[in-house]
Specification:
single chain; 196 residues; mainly alpha; 2 strands
Length: 196
Amino acid sequence: MTEAGAALGADGLRRCGWGDSADDYRLYHDTEWGRPVHGDDALFERVCLEAFQSGLSWITILRRREGFRAAFEGFAIDKVAEFGPADVERLLGDTGIIRNRAKIEASIANAKVARDLDGGLDALIWQYAGAPDRPAPRTLAEVPAVTPESTALAKALKKAGFRFVGPTTAYALMQACGLVDDHLADCHVRSALRAV
């Protein structure tokens, strides 16, 4: 990443600096990050993964994503909401995921909240989408860690009963799920998204 903008990859494409640092990141950056995600189960997965990421690097989560999907029944809210103490113990023994009791228990509790949420998780989260005409960041230094929208989203999620959803985690969720577009101005993905 330079002050001028996105990094030029070996394939000749410009990407946000982090998006060209490893093959896993490159694929995630180019095909998923910043693209709109809808559906309660799909957003529940992202809420869970962002919570598990807290204190860790995203690539750690990304490389265990399939393990998380298997362990958490594809992040089907109705299934995870039925997990009990035996499931917590099973998950604590699962080497395919991050074995953190507080985060595991929070994911199960969050499934119960999401299942009973009036209007659904998709409607709750997407009401905090950023303005589509927001200026594109030119450098990574211009990308915020927290915004008024992410603070409001975190507050709404906490009020509903969700755990592990602070403003920074909420903003990472917003970035990952396309509620905001933080691809740098000269990143090839931003151009592709604008062309759609």
